[in-house]
TrEMBL record:
Gene3D superfamilies listed in its UniProt record: Aldolase class I (3.20.20.70)
Protein's recorded name: DUS-like FMN-binding domain-containing protein
Cofactor annotation: FMN
Keyword Transport found: no
């Protein structure tokens, strides 16, 4: 499904802050930060299928702020990756006075009224940090290229916890406060800073963390409905705990929900149960980048587009191969077919398979779509 460019016959798209999108529209779809996987080619693909906000993989603020090599390796963007969308705005109609049989006013009803607005998508960079100056340095470097940064307080990996980042921050609300404030003071209070957390087994600690992050100046809260000890593969998301964390925000800032969103129906159920407008998906989008557009499996046209983007943007083969393998899972019900595809060892082998076995007519890579912009000029 192709989308209009930011400047077509309808005029330019609105450019909104992420928190403005979440406050003004009924449905906001988000690509989660994924280690290795949510790089430019994949972000640009999902933005063609109703994914309104995309997030980079988690990057270490310490390394990003001090190493030009790390910046060039970890982050690139281009002029078209965000996409353009026609989004449903929630508005309130004029109050309607309801009369009973005595013609006395019985109450005032307000009926939601929607209209579509043309909006440019948003790009968020996620950082892991435990030092305010390092996070502020990284945010200052990346600020011209993105629409906000996100502080990772949810990575459950053992190495991250031992380094004092990710989930290690869940029970350190004062440190989270200092990280948010230091960044805001450096880059400006109008530059969006969001915080992504997991729920705590002790929900009183979740409440404390949420209220502290908001008081520090966080603009958006994202909640993953698992604890740091619960693996996604073994534990279903706890929507009740997730909803509790959202309630802790008391409507002071917009919230997004994350966990077990594999279909459009999952997204709508999460919105309803957790009372949020923003829903984030990770594994669901890996398997089906078009899930937010209502597709039940990855369209073959999306796989064709991904091969073009990967070739033009220089995505390394191991990542390209894994992405396509995820996208093909629903198309390859036989184990032997999946095993054969996983054994392919080159771009040419994958391309031949897609053309000969899947019937794809692959587009030529050509030049990169838009101007790819690595951060080589931002070395310290």
């Amino acid at each position: 499904m192709s989308l209009p460019t930011p400047h077509d016959e309808d005029g330019p798209a609105e450019v909104l802050l992420p928190q403005e999108m979440l406050a003004q529209f009924s449905t906001v779809n988000v690509c989660a930060p994924m280690v290795r996987y949510s790089k430019l080619a994949f972000r640009q693909l999902v933005s063609q299928y109703e994914t309104h906000i995309t997030t980079t993989p988690m990057m270490l603020a310490k390394e990003f702020s001090r190493s030009a090599i790390a910046r060039d390796s970890d982050f690139s963007t281009n002029s078209l990756e965000r996409g353009t969308f026609y989004m449903d705005e929630i508005r309130r109609a004029a109050p309607v006075v309801e009369l009973d049989d005595s013609y006395e006013p019985r109450g005032i009803l307000e009926t939601p009224r929607r209209r579509k607005r043309k909006v440019r998508g948003s790009l968020i960079v996620q950082f892991a940090a435990n030092d305010g100056q390092q996070l502020a340095d990284a945010a200052e470097l990346v600020k011209p290229w993105v629409d906000g940064i996100d502080l990772n307080c949810g990575c459950p990996q053992k190495w991250a916890y031992q380094e004092g980042i990710g989930c290690a921050l869940l029970r350190k609300p004062e440190l989270v406060r200092d990280l948010v404030r230091s960044t805001k003071q450096r880059v400006g209070w109008d530059f969006p800073v969001s915080v992504k957390i997991r729920v705590d087994p002790d929900l009183t600690l979740t409440n404390e963390l949420v209220r502290t992050a908001i008081a520090a100046g966080a603009d958006v809260l994202t909640v993953h409905g698992r604890t740091r000890h619960q693996a996604s593969s073994a534990h279903p998301v706890n929507l009740d705990s997730l909803a509790f964390a959202v309630e802790c925000a008391k409507g002071d800032i917009p919230c997004m929900a994350n966990g077990d969103v594999f279909t459009l129906e999952d997204a709508e159920e999460t919105r309803r149960r957790c009372n949020v407008r923003g829903v984030m998906s990770a594994r669901g989008l890996l398997a089906n980048p078009a899930l937010f557009a209502g597709h039940s499996q990855t369209p073959l046209s999306a796989i064709s587009e991904f091969t073009r983007l990967s070739t033009s943007l220089g995505l390394i083969y191991p990542l390209f191969h894994r992405h396509v393998s995820y996208m093909l899972e629903s198309h390859l019900p036989r184990k032997r077919d999946r095993t054969y595809f996983n054994s392919l060892s080159s771009h040419a082998g994958v391309m031949d398979y897609l053309e000969e076995e899947m019937g794809l007519e692959l587009k030529s890579g050509g030049k990169a779509t838009g101007l790819e912009t690595p951060l080589t000029t931002l070395s310290l």
